[in-house]
Amino acid sequence: MTYGICHLSIVPLRFLPSDASEMVSQVLLGEHFTVLEKTKKWSKIQIHFDHYEGYIDNKQYIEIEKSLFNELSVSEYFYSSEILDYITSKDGHLSTMSIGSRLPYLKENTFKIVNQQFSYEGAVFNGKLKKEEIVHKAFLFLNTPYLWGGKTPFGIDCSGFTQMIYKLCGYQLPRDAKDQATQGKVLSFIKESEPGDLAFFDNENGVITHVGIIIQDYSIIHAHGKVRIDVLDHSGIYNVDSKTHTHQLRVIKKII
What we know:
- The longest helix has 11 residues, at about 160-170.
- It is built from four helices and 22 strands.
- Helix 2 (about 130-140) crosses helix 3.
- It has two domains: about 1-125, SH3 Domains (SH3 type barrels); about 130-255, endopeptidase fold (from Nostoc punctiforme) (Alpha-Beta Complex), CATH 3.90.1720.10.
- By secondary structure, the protein is mainly beta.
- Strands 17-18-19-20-21-22 form a six-stranded antiparallel β-barrel. It has a five-stranded antiparallel β-sheet with strand order 6-5-4-1-7.
């Protein structure tokens, strides 16, 4: 068994070991993982944070020892809170970094990825925040374009959006909507919900395919074409632009 850490800003995680394969998620700077299989060009990995699996190009990560993997797994988590910022290596080279990137061993504006030291002057998120912060963080992503497998302000899907917002507030969710729906406590009515709860939606086969965050006045912020705000009612999501229902409500969950 080998292990790795992402040293680049945003790396695609693919369904199959091919550049032409669909992107199922993304690996952000500072995320570490287990390498399950490795060929000449590709590695099948399992991300430590959410146990999500997929294929990553071997050129886009650094191998690490098991001892460092274990240390990273239990060490304090610091996440960048700037939508986009730069980090500077010891030799003065700049690299971009998206919100939600992990900053291992952050101390006095410096962090370290294996033997590489970087400086970062921006703000950070650390620890569990109050529930009302979920809505505040969600608005940071407003108008982000929809991107299947995305989880950054440059493109995000529905479950990547909810997972990232909860992550920035110190809470862990699985990657996919159907798995997120297994978490938390079921609420019987919309009126029982409060801002920060999650609403899940299914397709004609009863499979949960969509998720969003409930906000004030029983509206919902979700990724559908872009991160947008729509009306939530007993039937589902009412799109304020098209004047139609776009998603069928399945269940509402209180996660925290």
